[in-house]
Design brief:
By secondary structure, the chain is mainly alpha-helical. It is 74% helix and 0% strand. It has one domain.
């Protein structure tokens, strides 16, 4: 499959926009996946191709947050390990699903993520939870709950990735009390 100039320009433009959106909040895959499918890639190939861009974008974002002094490696690692295990399971599910079923699931996910965006659970942030030095300042029950939640976020992210940033932001801000900058520094760490 040879790529025409207009296709290259569309992919480049959408990639830049999605990268900025993913670094600031999340949801760039909700743009890139449909564009890749529209341009003729099978849904599962588009899903895999999309992840390569997310990995590069996330590595660069992690480096940028670290350079600015917004980094908590222990917290990121603590939440990433269960998410990684879940992502392996989710990726295996994605490989096994048919192209038609994947497109249907993607359509439903896009609607659900739109609902999550409109609902905006971060506005209901619990006032009694404060971030003061990492996950290990949270109660044992919150740490355990976070591990389980991030395992299931990992399964979802391994399967489809689209909108995972919104889920991570919702959990980190409402349950663990991180502000948006701290949340984004951990979110991009888990996405790659």
């Amino acid at each position: 499959m040879s790529m025409e100039l207009w296709q290259f320009l569309v992919i480049f433009t959408v990639g830049v926009v999605a990268g900025v959106i993913n670094t600031l909040a999340g949801g760039g895959s909700l743009i890139t996946l449909p564009v890749l499918i529209f341009l003729g890639l099978p849904a599962t190939v588009a899903n895999g191709t999309n992840r390569l861009a997310i990995t590069v974008q996330s590595v660069l974002a992690v480096a940028g947050f670290k350079r600015k002094g917004v980094s908590d490696f222990k917290l990121s690692l603590f939440m990433s390990l269960p998410a990684l295990i879940g992502a392996i399971i989710g990726a295996q599910l994605a490989v096994d699903v048919s192209d038609i079923l994947f497109k249907r699931i993607l359509a439903v996910v896009m609607l659900l993520v739109l609902g999550l965006i409109l609902w905006n659970p971060t506005r209901m942030r619990q006032g009694n939870v404060r971030y003061n030095g990492g996950m290990f300042s949270l109660s044992r029950s919150r740490r355990i709950a976070s591990m389980f939640i991030f395992f299931f976020i990992g399964v979802y992210g391994g399967f489809i990735q689209a909108g995972i940033g919104f889920l991570i932001i919702a959990i980190l801000t409402t349950m663990n009390g991180l502000n948006l900058v701290e949340t984004n520094s951990h979110k991009v760490y888990k996405e790659h």
